[in-house]
């Protein structure tokens, strides 16, 4: 398999910048953008230039470093800490659903709180070290998810996936796609069916692109075709990612995931969620408590720049939905596989 481009990379020391793939342009154009201000990081997250819960978390961590560059060398520690809180709060407002965003920001703030003896300049360097560690750990997490998940896949399996949970959504091989990459690397023959994932077509634009880059057979289908390919027995497993998972195992992912989970249950097909432990939010008892981001009506009425609905049409555009734990056969994490998916098993795995 060919080497795939990195979703993001840091350049230089603590006064450097973040380079990332602009995913809004794929697959027609491959372009990397440079983020040199915290406002540019915020915009990249908000506008989906970078997306996927783990990648958002990594970007936010680097955003903290960038946001502190204006005063790190000549401020006192009180001013530095106040600016850190300001930057973290600002970045937290970019997107409300992906828990990795808040996890990464909280981790950066915790490191600062635990190192009060460091002067601002040294603390700034320490925060860059932490951001790099978050990215490195994410890459290792992807590999571990791939190893655990590949054990669930037999050669000859047709796999349906929804949205994009590959390398573009993480710092490594992804979550759901990491399972497929690992299975393919083991010599298992698989055929992936990718939902196009309306309204922003992350499956069509990103997932198919990634799988083609890595030489994994992929067939693109409309979201509404998922039930038909299951009925035709083309699919023997469904694997998706997740943006937030509640304490009981309810998993929030891109809109349309709930429908796929229901269809899989109806056809007796195992539905797997692949996600790192940082995606779990144990403060939320169940998925009903997960905040669901609503996005602009134009994403539906004027998708990809072309008007497809009458002007002034009422639109409801939730970006995510929740697959309840009872529809999930297993959750694949970097620590192992949670099966069956229960509150007790979730906590046991996370505490292992």
Automatic annotation (TrEMBL):
Residues the entry annotates as binding substrate: 51-53, 95, 202, 253-254
Site (Transition state stabilizer) location in chain: 163
Pathway listed: Amino-acid biosynthesis; L-methionine biosynthesis via salvage pathway; L-methionine from S-methyl-5-thio-alpha-D-ribose 1-phosphate: step 1/6
Coiled coil found in the keyword field: no
Keyword Isomerase attached: yes
InterPro entries referenced in this protein's UniProt entry, alphabetically: IF-2B-related, IF-M1Pi, IF_2B-like_C, Initiation_fac_2B_a/b/d, M1Pi_N, NagB/RpiA_transferase-like
Keywords recorded for this protein, A-Z: Amino-acid biosynthesis, Isomerase, Methionine biosynthesis
Active site: 243 (proton donor)
GO biological process, one term: L-methionine salvage from methylthioadenosine
Substrates-to-products reaction catalysed: 5-(methylsulfanyl)-alpha-D-ribose 1-phosphate = 5-(methylsulfanyl)-D-ribulose 1-phosphate
EC number: 5.3.1.23
NCBIfam families with a match to the protein in the record: eIF-2B_rel, PRK05720.1, salvage_mtnA
HAMAP family xrefs: Salvage_MtnA
Protein family according to the UniProt entry: Belongs to the EIF-2B alpha/beta/delta subunits family. MtnA subfamily.
Function text: Catalyzes the interconversion of methylthioribose-1-phosphate (MTR-1-P) into methylthioribulose-1-phosphate (MTRu-1-P).
PANTHER family: METHYLTHIORIBOSE-1-PHOSPHATE ISOMERASE
Protein name, UniProt field: Methylthioribose-1-phosphate isomerase
């Amino acid at each position: 398999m060919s080497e795939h481009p990195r979703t993001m990379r840091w350049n230089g020391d603590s006064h450097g910048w973040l380079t990332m793939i602009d995913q809004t342009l794929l697959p027609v154009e491959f372009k990397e953008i440079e983020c040199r201000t915290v406002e540019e990081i915020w915009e990249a997250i908000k506008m989906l230039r970078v997306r996927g819960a783990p990648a958002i978390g990594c970007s936010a961590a680097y955003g903290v470093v960038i946001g502190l560059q204006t005063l790190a060398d000549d401020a006192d520690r009180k001013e530095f800490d106040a600016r850190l809180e300001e930057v973290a709060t600002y970045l937290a407002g970019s997107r409300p659903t992906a828990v990795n965003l808040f996890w990464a920001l909280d981790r950066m703030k915790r490191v600062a709180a635990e190192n009060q003896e460091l002067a601002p300049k040294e603390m700034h360097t320490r925060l860059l070290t932490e951001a790099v560690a978050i990215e490195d750990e994410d890459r290792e997490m992807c590999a571990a998810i791939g190893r655990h998940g590949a054990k669930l896949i037999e050669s000859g399996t047709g796999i349906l996936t929804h949205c994009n949970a590959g390398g573009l959504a993480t710092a490594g091989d992804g979550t759901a796609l990491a399972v497929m990459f690992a299975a393919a690397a083991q010599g298992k023959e698989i055929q992936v069916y990718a939902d196009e994932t309306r309204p922003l077509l992350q499956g069509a634009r990103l997932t198919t692109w990634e799988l083609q880059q890595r030489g994994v057979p992929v067939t693109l289908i409309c979201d509404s075709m998922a039930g038909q390919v299951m009925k035709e027995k083309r699919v023997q497993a469904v694997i998706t990612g997740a943006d937030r998972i509640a304490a009981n195992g309810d998993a929030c992912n891109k809109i349309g995931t709930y429908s796929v989970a229901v269809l899989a249950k109806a056809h007796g097909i195992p539905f797997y969620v692949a996600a790192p432990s940082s995606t779990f939010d144990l403060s939320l008892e169940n998925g009903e408590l997960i905040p669901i981001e609503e996005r602009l009506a134009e994403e539906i009425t004027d998708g990809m720049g072309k008007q497809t609905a009458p002007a002034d049409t009422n639109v409801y555009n939730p970006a995510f939905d929740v697959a309840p734990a009872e529809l999930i056969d297993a959750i694949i994490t970097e620590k192992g596989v949670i099966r069956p998916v229960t509150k007790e098993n979730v906590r046991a795995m996370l505490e292992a």
